[in-house]
Write a structure and sequence with these properties.
The complex is a heterodimer of chains A (about 325) and B (about 230). Chain A has one domain: ABC transporter involved in vitamin B12 uptake, BtuC. Helices cover about 75% and strands about 0% of the residues of chain A. Chain A is built from 14 helices and two strands. In chain A, about 45% of the residues are buried. The model of chain A has no long low-confidence stretch (mean pLDDT about 95). Chain B is α/β, with parallel strands linked by helices and about 230 residues long. Classes of the chains: A mainly alpha (about 325), B alpha/beta (about 230). Chains A and B meet through helix 7 and helix 8 of A and helix 2 and helix 3 of B.
Chain lengths: ~325, ~230
């Protein structure tokens, strides 16, 4: 029994808890992508760098507060600055929409044109972030790092393996839960949310019903920027902030949005966890887990790792290709790209 | 001058004109039907009245007010309801949400109107929590008409409401349309099922190549041997 508990603790430490946190971060990112796709009808390649921008703004605010000696007790100071970071990201996308996307919307440009335009926007955001904060890896998590420390857990339970639960992981899950519930409440229950869904469903009929397209577009961008900043800051707290990593996050985020069914918010949440657990589950070396449950003579000689962590992006790619080949609408029957 | 009137309309989608001096009108509580062969400009005439098409000549008036300069959305506010032929419901939204979106421009309470729609189309009350995309063709048309009724329009315009539904459902829809007209709303519709539509019509317009060919009461058109022979298949 104890050996199974030990195995479960190891699995929790290295697969379940990190997968849950990473999945929540991907879900938030994919929600932004899927909302933009549903309403504005294009895949926004600038989403990863928008996440980076919102995170950068939050980090700069965090540094400023830290320099004034202000903290948030056991919680990371970044949470205190989060609204400011969100505001900066919202202003950035609204500005971008005003000077870039609106021009193409008025010309009724094809979706593929919007995609290419968003690649251009991506490079600009990319440069902005590097200009202000640089390319280095940065950690900005402060406050109490652990909620459950491994050695305390061991002392408490008498198990040989210690469970670790970091503050950033719990914050990620809690913030995601609150954000997703709030978003779904907004989309399902409020008049504006319903108007957004109506606009996404049938643009012509929405116009005929007197729904203001400008307002719908504005709210969509604001939501996307909010979700992107949340995803970026949580990812940064959990791991670290490095602009290039945020650009690379685009791949798992798009995989998540497409697996769930692009244009379907609930699908994005499911997709986030599917991608995260596939990535973490396939690249983890299970030797230590097996060590607790298998008799010695059955132990594999290797690490019992299916894929090297260097290949973690390949997992997203494979999921993406499989879904597009086998079920292009995704789990929840979204649109076909 | 009729309650809703498009008089001497000439115009098209840029390029050659589709409508030539075409005149259509409908009174409160009456049903007017536009019929004619394919490509006669039936839907175009309807779209012209709704402002989805620029007119080079002619006037469109509603209750004596010239509405020629208004956009389709503004005409909705002015009291016109329009049900497009296809994609006329929000498929992913529930029936109730569809009706709610129909009332989007209203600033007052719309619960009462929704009750009226439900009593007109009882099946919609039953299916209020179902996505409109999951309903049958006939039920979906009822959602579409119900959505348009949510603004309490003075005029309801229907573009081929019975396209693609079975004959039984068609009869049922025509009955519903009569019920709507009985509430005092003027109804203007384009129909492929000319004979059945003329049977319920107070007024019929037969268009050919964008021009008025015959204009009379529905009954008189049905009785006219010439109209029967050329447009109603004997």
């Amino acid at each position: 029994m104890e050996s199974f508990l030990n195995a479960f603790v190891v699995l929790s430490n290295f697969v379940l808890i990190p997968g849950l946190a990473y999945g929540a971060q991907l879900a938030l990112g994919a929600l932004g992508v899927t909302l933009v796709y549903a309403v504005l009808r294009f895949s926004n390649f600038a989403h990863g760098d928008l996440m980076a921008f919102g995170t950068m703004a939050t980090i700069l605010g965090t540094w400023w507060l830290q320099s004034m000696g202000v903290g948030f007790g056991p919680l990371p100071t970044a949470l205190l600055v989060l609204p400011l970071g969100i505001l900066a990201a919202v202003l950035l996308v609204l500005g971008t929409d005003r000077v870039v996307y609106r021009f193409y919307r008025r010309r009724r440009a094809a979706p593929v044109v919007f995609v290419i335009v968003s690649v251009g926007v991506m490079f600009i955001y990319n440069a902005l972030v590097r200009f202000f904060i640089g390319v280095e890896d940065r950690r900005f998590e402060d406050g109490e790092r652990f909620i459950i420390r491994p050695n305390e857990f061991e002392a408490l339970t008498g198990l040989s393996e210690g469970l670790a639960l970091r503050t950033s992981q719990l914050i990620t899950v809690v913030v995601t839960l609150v954000a997703v519930v709030a978003l779904f409440w907004f989309l399902q229950r409020t008049r504006t949310g319903k108007a957004m869904r109506a606009f996404s469903d049938n643009e012509d009929l929405a116009l005929l019903s007197g729904i203001d397209p400008k307002r719908v577009v504005l709210i969509t961008w604001a939501l996307a920027a909010t979700l992107a900043t949340l995803a970026g800051v949580l990812y940064g707290l959990d791991k670290s902030f490095r602009p290039f990593n945020y650009f690379q996050l685009l791949l798992p985020i798009f995989a998540a949005a497409i697996v769930g069914g692009i244009g379907k918010p609930f699908g994005a949440v499911i997709g986030g966890f599917v991608v995260a657990f596939s990535e973490v589950g396939l690249t983890y070396a299970y030797r230590r887990v097996l060590g607790h449950v298998l008799p010695d003579e059955w132990m594999p000689s290797g690490l019992a790792q299916l894929l090297s962590t260097d290949y973690k992006f390949a997992v997203s790619f494979i999921i993406l290709v499989l879904v597009l080949l086998l079920r292009p609408t995704g789990i929840l029957r979204g649109r076909v790209i | 001058m009729s309650f809703l009137s498009g008089a001497h309309m000439t115009g098209g989608y840029g390029g050659a004109d589709i409508l030539h001096d075409c005149t259509i009108g409908v009174e409160k509580g009456e049903i007017a039907v536009i019929v004619g062969p394919n490509g006669a400009g039936k839907s175009t005439a309807m779209k012209a009245i709704f402002g989805m098409l620029g007119l080079r000549q002619g006037t469109v008036t509603l209750d004596g007010r010239d509405i020629g300069g208004l956009s389709p959305q503004e005409r909705v506010v002015a009291g016109m309801g329009f049900v497009p032929q296809t994609n006329n419901v929000f498929r992913a939204l529930t029936v109730e949400e569809n009706l709610e979106m129909g009332a989007y421009i209203r600033t007052d309470g719309y619960r009462e109107t929704m009750e009226q729609v439900f009593s007109l189309f009882p099946i919609l009350r039953e299916k209020r929590r179902q996505p409109a995309g999951e309903l049958s063709g006939g039920q979906r048309q009822q959602v579409a008409v119900g959505r348009a009724l949510m603004t309490k329009p003075k005029v309801l315009m229907l573009d081929e409401p019975t396209a693609g539904v079975s004959p039984i459902v068609m009869d049922e829809l025509f009955d519903k349309i009569l019920d709507v007209a009985a509430t005092g709303i003027a109804i203007l519709m384009v129909e492929q099922n000319a004979r059945q539509a003329l049977e319920i019509a107070d007024k019929g317009y037969v268009l050919v190549q964008g021009r008025n060919r015959y204009t009379d009461t529905g009954a008189a058109l049905l009785a006219d041997p010439e109209v029967r022979r050329t447009f109603l298949g004997g």
